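Allow me, if you will, to draw on your knowledge of protein folds for a short while. I am sending you one protein, given as its amino acid sequence and as whole-number tokens for its backbone shapes. Kindly check, if you would, that the fold set down in the tokens agrees with what the sequence suggests. The record follows directly beneath this note:
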Amino acid sequence: MPELKRTGLYDLHLERGARMVPFAGYEMPVQYPLGVMKEHLHCRAQAGLFDVSHMGQILVHPKSGDLTDAALALESLMPVALVELKEGRQRYGLLTNADGGIMDDLMLANRGDHFLLVVNAACKDADLAHITSHIADRCTVTPITDRALLALQGPEADGALSALVPAVADMTFMDSVVVPSDFGELWISRSGYTGEDGFEISVPEGQAVALARALLAQQAVEPIGLGARDSLRLEAGLCLYGHDLDTATSPVEADLIWAMQKARRAGGARQGGFPGEDRILGELAEGVARRRVGLRPETRAPMREGTELFADDQGQTPIGTVTSGLFGPSVEAPISMGYIGTAYAREGTTIYGAVRGKYLPATVSALPFRTSNYKR
């Protein structure tokens, strides 16, 4: 086994009593003494601080000096419109492969003369190689290795960060700014992975612990581990790469059509031109055989990842599989996401999951399971 990496906050995690586990090649905190359930509920009620420094940060500069050239270069790798993305704004994106599957999902911010990409930890080396190999003739692609990344999430995140960086108070959802601070230059977006208002903060690595301590010193803020991060994102209906998304699954199957702007679809100003366009545009026109849906089990037993799904309570007609599932602390019920045949994907349909030798009922549900609280 390769040696696990550690983020710059590793010692602080131990100091705070974290239980560390392997995740995406790193030793990461899965929970603190508060426990997963209370961490989840604290983030929903006040503010939680997450170490997400394992994720990748990449800068893309156009060699011509014209940002449109970088936007077009990146558009050649994903079915997302970036030419129209205004300076200081961020957008969700999807890297697709030649077969129309999803290589990674990521965030892209227009920083005026370049783009900042934040990619998943397990994919970051492959993403960097893929992006560089395809657009290095037009853009300079630079991995960032000297900055940490923190996420501050919850209804009191605004007040907690504003106390240290007043400029963030005027930001709205998916804004992206660069601001000076007592902790060096901060790259801040008003976004996150919990369904709550909050921020993702890129900070010079040498200042990360100081910033984390300053945030944790505030009464509203508690450290939150991977366990609660997973339950928070699932309640928010958000996908986890490698579980709900993979290289065989298309954006249309994943119900991520909203992430493909009209300019990139058939009849749009810049239709197609991305890997897998034939499959993806074909599915947009003709539909798909399976689709990602939310599921609400009708018993107290969670239907976890890998649970096989059936149209009947005898297990005679297989229709899909759960990709994420757990007990949702805020909705006080088990929740799942998975892929099922489109014929069964209508909201309110009853299907059945194989749980410990029984076929238990679940209802196809709208996503998210809980209304998100972004600052618009």
Remarks:
- The two ends are 45 Å apart (CA to CA).
- The chain has eight helices and 19 strands.
- The mean pLDDT is 97.
